[in-house]
Write a structure and sequence with these properties.
It comes from Methanocorpusculum labreanum (strain ATCC 43576 / DSM 4855 / Z). Belongs to the UPF0696 family. This protein is an alpha+beta fold. Helix 4 crosses helix 5. The longest helix has 22 residues.
């Protein structure tokens, strides 16, 4: 991110939203570091690892690489105070995350940009707020194990004016909507995980074209 990029972002976002963006970027920064070490942030939290030391070290690196965003990150306090947020579940547990609209988990070794590719698509699982934490843990772990697709993400407790009800949604991404055997393989794995009710699959290219916003349009490309 260049200085010019940051100036554009700074103009578009209020200070609080910019701070939340910085926190989300820092979380991704930590996740990429942990993946390079063969671990994950949530595992460090759940195992009682040295989150304070991890945040302290990576805040210094983050400040070097993303100095303007690091200034916004300081609104959350010290490295220890940020570590406390992770221990509480921020950015890890959907029902306890209020700084970001989404938690994302990429399949190890997969680019974080892959899920956004036009040829990709996703299965949509809708669950109640009381079910989302357990459902996300199943999908997250299966994604890491390579049982599902290229990544997954879940909506959080952060208030979102675009939500139509209080349900949460989990996206399970596959690399190529046209690869029907792989798309259906992932659906079969989701059934094994307990998601047996009929769910729909949307293509990214249709989402980007605004197809799902038009009344009367088919809401899913596959439905199983």
């Amino acid at each position: 991110m260049t200085a010019d990029d940051f100036e554009i972002i700074e103009e578009e976002f209020p200070a609080d939203e910019l701070a939340d963006l910085a926190f989300g970027m820092f979380t991704i920064f930590i996740e990429k570091h942990q993946e390079s070490q063969g671990s994950f942030l949530f595992r460090e939290v759940e195992s009682g690892g040295d989150i304070d030391g991890l945040c302290q070290k990576l805040m210094q690196d983050f400040t070097t690489e993303y100095a303007p965003l690091a200034d916004s990150l300081k609104r959350f306090g010290t490295a220890q105070e940020i570590a406390d947020l992770y221990r509480f579940g921020e950015g890890i547990v959907p029902s306890k995350t209020v700084k970001s609209y989404w938690i994302q988990q990429d399949k190890p070794g997969t680019s974080s940009q892959a899920a956004g590719a036009e040829e990709a698509g996703k299965w949509l699982i809708f669950v109640g707020p009381e079910e989302v934490d357990a459902a996300w843990q199943k999908v997250r772990d299966a994604t890491i194990e390579g049982r599902l697709g290229i990544g997954a993400k879940v909506s959080t407790a952060k208030e979102n004016e675009d939500s139509h009800d209080d349900r949460k949604v989990i996206y399970v991404f596959t690399a190529d909507w046209a690869d029907e055997p792989d798309v259906m393989r992932v659906r079969a794995e989701l059934k094994e995980l307990g998601f047996v009710d009929r769910i729909g699959y949307k293509r990214n290219l249709d989402t980007y074209a605004g197809e799902y916003r038009e009344k009367g349009k088919r809401v899913a490309y596959y439905s199983v």
